[in-house]
From TrEMBL:
Coiled-coil stretches noted in the UniProt entry, renumbered to this chain: none
Keyword check for Ligase: yes
Protein name according to UniProt: amidase
Pfam family membership, one: Amidase
Organism: Corynebacterium variabile
């Protein structure tokens, strides 16, 4: 069992795996654990500002879990019985308004989002909803509706976005599990800046809701404070779902070996021509050394693509698939939004006007072929998630500089949304000079989920990032 990492406050919050063992042994009760979660939230909010609302039915769910654990054994169909989880605001909960941090656009879903429904059915206790930026369209978590969400490790800096509230809540010890989503790094970026773990599964493995999940860059995600818990949660939320015709019948991910001895692992410090801070590179190198010490064969390779190529293709893609709908909703509702939202819409729609959709297909194909070449003969690729060790907490007022460069160009996650059949697991690597955690992403061959978790376990077992 993996030990729980310390929180910024200095205490150690239990992992989901530890809680389940304690429940079975009668050492803890779900209602007591829920009380601890609520106490942590009360002690830290609104300084971190990661919580949109507390869910009042959590107490009843914890009481039911108390009763079911009273025999010392959980029902087989409830693998998360009594485990607290926080839910990203964008993941709808039946009967509760859903607005993605833009109140004028609120709707009330009649059913839970598929992953919320699966967590509830597995016995998890839904504690709170966590913040995301407007329409999840930023890599910080800041909105007119909810204000700035801050990094528990250093409140002057962001926990990342768009799943920043979930990342911050995990780091602050509010719960051992959280939901995320990822269309341009929105799970992996907060995992990195918060010192936790986030998994972008291959497209279709985790069900979503149409029409948004028709976008082949998108994935809904498991986040946790350890690799073990992330895999536990992922195996609950994954697999085909009736509400998502694009979901596929994938079984649970099993990792028969945690050893990486003999595995060929590619390391790319700059992933083309990204300009990466020394602290991020140094911590990546230390992680690679830890794997080499366990018998892995490390190779340094670099893809033949540029940041400019990645961003040109991705921004055109978003302009064809994502932002026109955002623009229509804003116009129809008269919603007030932040500058980063309107600038993202304008920038991407202009990019789409310059590159027809069929051309994005051709350009994406070249990028996918290049990733295949990079991974040829290898178990996995290690590369940073972000170029910088920290970003300010507040969303940028100006998203595009005088050279037309969008601030997303400082994030190294987007290539693996373009190549979205490849799993990508973000894990911590240490701390940067401003006290904010750093991380890397483990990228596997298409649909090879077991390998990224195998490497993640090896890094965690070696104490990397602790």
């Amino acid at each position: 069992m993996t030990a729980a990492p310390a929180t910024p406050a200095g205490f150690t919050a239990p992992t989901a795996t530890e809680l389940l063992a304690d429940y079975a042994a009668g050492r803890r009760r779900p209602s007591e654990v829920l009380a601890d979660s609520l106490a942590a939230i009360e002690a830290t909010e609104p300084t971190v500002n990661a919580v949109v609302e507390l869910l009042e039915d959590a107490t009843d769910a914890a009481s039911v879990a108390d009763e079911q654990w009273s025999s010392g054994t959980a029902p087989a169909d409830k693998p998360l019985l009594g485990v607290p989880v926080v839910i990203k605001e964008k993941h709808g909960i039946a009967g509760r308004p859903l607005d993605q941090a833009v109140p004028a656009t609120a709707v009330t879903p009649e059913v839970d989002h598929p992953i919320v429904g699966r967590l509830r059915a597995a016995g998890a206790v839904l504690v709170a909803r966590t913040t995301n930026p407007e329409f999840c369209a930023a890599t910080t978590t800041d909105s007119l509706a909810h204000g700035v969400t801050r990094n528990p490790w250093n409140p002057g800096f962001t926990p990342g976005g768009s799943s920043g509230g979930s990342g911050a809540a995990l780091a602050a010890g509010y719960a051992p599990l959280a939901t995320g989503s990822d269309i341009g790094g929105s799970t992996r970026i907060p995992a990195t800046f918060c010192g936790v773990v986030g998994y972008k599964a291959p497209y279709g493995v985790v069900p979503g809701l149409h029409p948004s999940t028709m976008d082949w860059y998108r994935s809904d995600s498991a986040m946790a404070r350890t690799v073990e818990d992330t895999l536990l949660m992922h195996n609950v939320i994954a697999a085909q779902h009736a509400l998502d015709p694009h979901s596929i019948p994938f079984g649970p991910v099993e990792v028969p070996k945690r050893s990486v001895a003999g595995c060929r692992i590619v390391v790319s410090e700059t992933l083309g021509n990204y300009v990466v801070d020394d602290a991020v590179r140094d911590n990546l190198a230390a992680a690679a050394f830890a794997l080499e010490a366990q018998g892995a064969v490390i190779e340094h390779r670099n893809p033949d693509w540029t940041v400019e190529e990645i961003m040109t293709v991705a921004m055109a893609h978003y302009g064809h698939t994502l932002t026109p709908g955002m623009a229509d909703v804003i116009e129809a509702t008269g919603a007030e939004v932040s500058p980063y939202t309107t600038q993202f819409i304008d920038h991407t729609i202009a990019a789409a006007a310059r590159m027809p959709l069929h051309e994005t297909f051709a350009r994406e194909t070249r990028i996918k072929e290049e990733l295949g070449r990079l991974l040829s003969g290898a178990t996995a690729l290690l590369t940073p998630v972000t170029t910088k060790d920290a970003f300010l907490a507040e969303a940028p007022q100006v998203s595009v500089d005088n050279h037309g460069r969008h601030y997303w160009a400082d994030l190294m996650a987007v290539p693996f949304n373009i190549c979205n059949r490849h799993p990508a697991l973000a894990v911590p690597t240490g701390t940067g000079p401003r006290g904010v955690p750093t991380g890397l992403q483990i990228v596997g061959n298409a649909y090879d989920q077991a390998s990224v978790f195998r490497v993640g376990f090896a890094l965690e077992d070696a104490g990397v990032g602790v």
